[in-house]
């Protein structure tokens, strides 16, 4: 196994960290309205500047898990042309889990910030 | 666009078609089309766009295998019985009512009871209250009733996630309006208001009903994941609720309900003519309580009784 290259300055980004929050990120994209897979994917891609993205395979597994847990509900749209789109809608349960996860993230982020002292003297 | 379909069909060739696989294929198809359209609008040829969209997807077989594994896991045997699993899960996820919630419900109930009781003194002839004062008391009572509904919905329980504030507010409004309409109609029947108030009462009930319907049809899932797990396990074992399992019990309950309400109506009329209309409506409260007790007894049987039923 070869170790990954060290990230360069403009590539200072942890894809693993992002991936660990896939469920919450998907819930976040659904908060403002129902979306289908590509819209969710696009929202995430655009938010990360297009350079980093969550793999589509990961997203399909996420949709399935969220649906199974009742955090989102899936339904088919009625597009007149082209294939039908499968839309996802966040449920009340999903909103509650989203809020909890965001609170947990904020608390964790504050602790990590404090431990790494990023706001005082970021080592260069 | 035909290229997307061909690429997808090739990728799914040889995969055992199941509802889940078919579902997934359709979902992927629409997403690929959208991505290809995006690439095309950026200047790619249709063929190149379809090819690139498909390549970005990665290993389709892996996605399908993943979905199939999930399905297999779900249908796999559960070692614990559904009841044991349910009890364990309920214990793990138990949420106790907060003191704030209990206090809120108790206070609202007190307000409700006090307002209705004081208002009832007017038709009983004990207290000479102006009509507007009685209406204000009834409005207070129905607002308290709606408050209990809204507060109960917006709190987290062992089985349910809390409902968002706005939505719970809608239920507050709907049940408050409905209760106000019914109380107005009742007091009009008792002679406190002129007959025209029936129109106001009817309007309130209708608006409340429409609001209820709107909220009902747009309601999404509030159940926690473990409740769904238990329900799924029970469905797998064939443990639906008793009325699903035993249609005779359901029919019996229907007959009981009819008898309860018919008796309640007769008692209501008799009491109204003898004791007075001010208190005879309590019959319906008693009838509702009796019906709920019967329902509780009939719907949830102990494991022993359940076993007897199944024989």
Automatic annotation (TrEMBL), chain B:
<dbReference type="InterPro" id="IPR047928">
    <property type="entry name" value="Perm_prefix_1"/>
</dbReference>
<feature type="transmembrane region" description="Helical">
    <location>
        <begin position="171"/>
        <end position="190"/>
    </location>
</feature>
<keyword id="KW-0812">Transmembrane</keyword>
<feature type="transmembrane region" description="Helical">
    <location>
        <begin position="101"/>
        <end position="122"/>
    </location>
</feature>
<feature type="transmembrane region" description="Helical">
    <location>
        <begin position="128"/>
        <end position="151"/>
    </location>
</feature>
<keyword id="KW-1133">Transmembrane helix</keyword>
<feature type="transmembrane region" description="Helical">
    <location>
        <begin position="253"/>
        <end position="273"/>
    </location>
</feature>
<feature type="transmembrane region" description="Helical">
    <location>
        <begin position="279"/>
        <end position="300"/>
    </location>
</feature>
<keyword id="KW-0472">Membrane</keyword>
<feature type="transmembrane region" description="Helical">
    <location>
        <begin position="196"/>
        <end position="218"/>
    </location>
</feature>
<protein>
    <submittedName>
        <fullName>Uncharacterized protein</fullName>
    </submittedName>
</protein>
């Amino acid at each position: 196994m070869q170790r990954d290259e060290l990230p360069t300055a403009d590539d200072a980004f942890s894809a693993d960290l992002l991936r660990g929050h896939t469920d919450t990120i998907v819930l976040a994209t659904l908060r403002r309205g129902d979306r289908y897979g590509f819209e969710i994917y696009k929202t995430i891609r655009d938010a990360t500047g297009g350079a980093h993205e969550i793999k589509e395979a990961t997203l399909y597994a996420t949709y399935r898990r969220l649906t199974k847990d009742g955090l989102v509900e899936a339904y088919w749209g009625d597009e007149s042309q082209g294939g039908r789109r499968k839309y996802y809608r966040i449920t009340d349960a999903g909103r509650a889990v989203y809020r909890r996860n965001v609170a947990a993230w904020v608390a964790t982020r504050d602790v990590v910030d404090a431990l790494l002292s990023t706001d005082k003297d970021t080592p260069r | 666009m035909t290229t997307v379909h061909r690429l997808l069909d090739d990728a799914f060739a040889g995969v055992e078609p199941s509802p889940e696989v078919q579902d997934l294929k359709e979902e992927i198809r629409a997403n690929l089309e959208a991505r290809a359209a995006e690439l095309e609008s950026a200047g790619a040829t249709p063929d190149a766009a379809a090819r690139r969209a498909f390549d970005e997807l990665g290993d389709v077989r892996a996605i399908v295998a993943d979905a199939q594994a999930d399905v297999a896991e779900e249908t796999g045997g559960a070692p614990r019985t559904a009841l044991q699993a349910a009890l364990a899960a309920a214990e793990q996820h138990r949420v106790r009512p907060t003191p704030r919630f209990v206090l809120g419900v108790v206070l609202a109930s007190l307000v409700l009871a006090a307002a209705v009781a004081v208002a009832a003194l007017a038709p009983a002839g004990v207290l000479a209250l102006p009509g507007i004062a009685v209406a204000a008391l009834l409005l207070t009572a129905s607002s308290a009733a709606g408050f209990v509904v809204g507060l109960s919905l917006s709190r987290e329980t062992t089985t349910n996630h809390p409902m968002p504030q706005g939505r719970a507010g809608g239920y507050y409004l709907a049940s408050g309006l409905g209760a106000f309409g019914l109380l107005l109609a009742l007091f009009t029947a008792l002679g406190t208001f002129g007959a025209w108030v029936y129109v106001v009462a009817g309007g309130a009930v209708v608006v409340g009903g429409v609001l209820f319907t709107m909220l009902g049809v747009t309601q999404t899932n509030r159940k926690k994941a473990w409740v769904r797990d238990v329900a799924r396990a029970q469905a797998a074992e064939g443990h639906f609720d008793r009325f699903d399992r035993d249609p005779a019990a359901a029919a019996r309950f229907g007959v009981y309900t009819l008898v309860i309400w018919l008796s309640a109506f007769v008692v209501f009329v008799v009491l109204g003519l003898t004791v007075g209309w001010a208190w005879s409506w309590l019959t319906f409260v008693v009838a509702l309580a009796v019906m709920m007790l019967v329902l509780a007894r009939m719907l949830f049987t102990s494991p022993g009784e359940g076993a007897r039923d199944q024989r």
